Each structure stands twice: as structure tokens, then as C-alpha cells.
Amino acid sequence: MKEKKTLLVAFSTQKGGIGKSTLTVLMASYFHYAKGYHVGVVDCDYAQFSIYNMRERDRQIVTTIDHYKLMAYNQLKRTGKKIYPIVKSTASQAIDTAEQLIKDSPENLDIIFLDLPGTLNSEGILHTISTLDYIIAPVSADRMVLQSTLEYAALINEKIITTGKGNIEGLYLLWNMVDARERTNLYHAYDTIIAELGLQVMKNVLPETKRYRHELTEEVKPVFRSTIFPADKRLMRGSNLDLIADEIEQITKLKPYGREEQ
Ligand SMILES: Nc1ncnc2c1ncn2[C@@H]1O[C@H](COP(=O)(O)OP(=O)(O)OP(=O)(O)O)[C@@H](O)[C@H]1O
Ligand SMILES: [Mg+2]
């Protein structure tokens, strides 16, 4: 099989609680189970390891609840896709961990999503960030969050991108938790400021919605955020996950193995 570089992408910003881990899981599962890419995840969120732990919980549910067991079996039969690997790492060693994961994977990985802590306070983390291909910084329309994200983006720009040292091909802001009633004027004003700073913003935004609470539990219900299934179609509607995934595909010019020569 033809060797192709595995893309390294992180939803990353210094602000906490803004959707980094959530987006990592939603996109990893959507790219892997729904779009057919081969995905890997490196969870570097030390102490929390929220994605790694979610996988443990998901696995527990899927092996004990018949409904989900069958769903997983049918998914495997239909797509031929096993669950994607999620490995723990420190932030400084994340690239080595990703490379090891690429080596260990029986399939050629198309994309690895890394969930990083929000600090830029060590050489090791700066090295990790500079080795990524794309950084997507989730942000919400809250002055403090926006300010903190703009600082983070400016720092990455200044320390890595403009020095020409790293691999970073793109740094994008992504509006999350968008309140439909607030949209338009406010966001347009913010988008103008962001553009004036020379930063890019993703066109599609993620609405604020209650569906984010729907995880795999013992109760049988449509699932939104899981490491074993993509978001349920019924919950996808209006979530913009599909549009965000398409936009990421476009930005990164991602093409799965075997499709590029058709
Ligand atoms: N668009 C959204 N609508 C509603 N809730 C959301 C949305 N995006 C994220 N959330 C919720 O916000 C909370 C924080 O998300 P998450 O844990 O992914 O953030 P994080 O940036 O990884 O935080 P941390 O800094 O603690 O790692 C979660 O409860 C998640 O369900
Ligand atoms: Mg997190």
C-alpha cells in the first residue's frame, strides 16, 4: 500500500471548558465511523484523560448492554471498521506517541486527533504544537474566552508560524456554543476583528445545544458523543457536525487511502 503522511490535528486553545475534548471525540468518531477514514486519538489531557476514560466507559456499556452490543456488531459488519485507538501520552511526548501509534496500527492512519492541555509553558509542548499540521481553536462569543483564544493564536503565530520552524499549515478559530439569537451582528463584528488580526475562522459554527449531554449510558437512547459510534443521525440534524467535518476535510485536503487516484 502507498505510504501517505498521517495528518496531525488538534482542537486546542488555552481556555478550559470550551469543547476541545468534546470536539475531538465527535470529529474522531464521525471521520472514522461515518466518513470511512482511519483515525487515531492521542489523549494528552493529563490527570483528566477524559477521552481515554470515555472509551473505557463506552466499552463497558457496549459489552454489557445487548442493544449496543448488536449495534457495534452491525457497524463492524457494515463498515468493516474496528474501533479507533485512543492512547494516553504526556503533551511533550505526544508526537512520539503518535508516531508509535502510526507504526503499531495495522491500517495506515489518515488522521490523528490530539487532545492537548491548554498550556504553552514548556519547550516540549511548544515542540508538540509546532509539529502539528492543523490547529483548530474553539472559541465562544464571550469577551474573556475570545481574548484568551486570540492571545493563544497570536502566540502560536509569533512563536511558531512566522518563524517558519514548525509544520503548521493552518490555524483556525471555530465558533462553538453559538446562541442562535445572538448570531449575525455580534459574530460579524468579531469575525472582522479576527480577520484584521490576520487569523482565520471556520465558516461553519457549532450551536449551543443540550444534545451534547447524550452519551452512552445503560439506558437505550440515541447517542451523540461516543468513542464507539458516530453521533446518531437524529441528533445530527442542526448540529452542523457534518458541515464542520466537511470543512475540515476541505481545509486539510484530506483524502482517504486509495481514493486519490480514482
Ligand atoms: N456546542 C455545545 N453546546 C452545548 N454544550 C457544549 C457544546 N460544546 C461543548 N459543550 C459542553 O461543554 C463542556 C466542556 O466541554 P469539553 O470538556 O469538551 O471542554 P474542554 O475544552 O475539553 O475542557 P477542559 O479544558 O476541561 O479539557 C462539556 O460539558 C460539553 O458537553
Ligand atoms: Mg478537555
Short description:
It contains nine helices and seven strands. It has 262 residues and is α/β, with parallel strands linked by helices. It starts with 6 loop residues before the first strand and ends in a 10-residue tail after the last helix.
Describe the structure.
By secondary structure, the chain is α/β, with parallel strands linked by helices. 42% of the residues lie in helices and 12% in strands. The chain has a 7-stranded parallel sheet, with helices on both faces. Strand 5, helix 6 and strand 6 form a beta-alpha-beta unit. The longest helix is centred in the middle third of the chain and has 19 residues. It binds adenosine-5'-triphosphate and magnesium ion.
Task: Label this structure with key terms.
binds adenosine-5'-triphosphate; 9 helices; globular; 7 strands; 262 residues; Rossmann fold; binds magnesium ion; alpha/beta
* Helix content class: 40-55%
**Outline, from the CA principal axes?**
globular
Number of helices: 9
End-to-end separation in angstroms reads 15 Å
Strand order of the largest sheet: 3-2-4-1-5-6-7
Q: What is the N-to-C order of secondary-structure elements (H for helix, E for strand)?
A: EHEHHEHEHEHEHEHH
CATH class: Alpha Beta
* Radius of gyration from CA coordinates: 18 Å
The count of DSSP E runs of length 2 or more, i.e. the number of strands, is: 7
Please specify the SSE layout and strand pairing.
Layout: E1 7-11, H1 20-34, E2 39-43, H2 50-64, H3 66-79, E3 86-88, H4 94-104, E4 111-115, H5 123-131, E5 134-139, H6 143-161, E6 170-175, H7 185-196, E7 200-201, H8 233-236, H9 241-252
Parallel strand pairs: 1-4, 1-5, 2-3, 2-4, 5-6, 6-7
Helix pairs in contact: 2-3
Bound molecules: adenosine-5'-triphosphate (ATP) and magnesium ion.
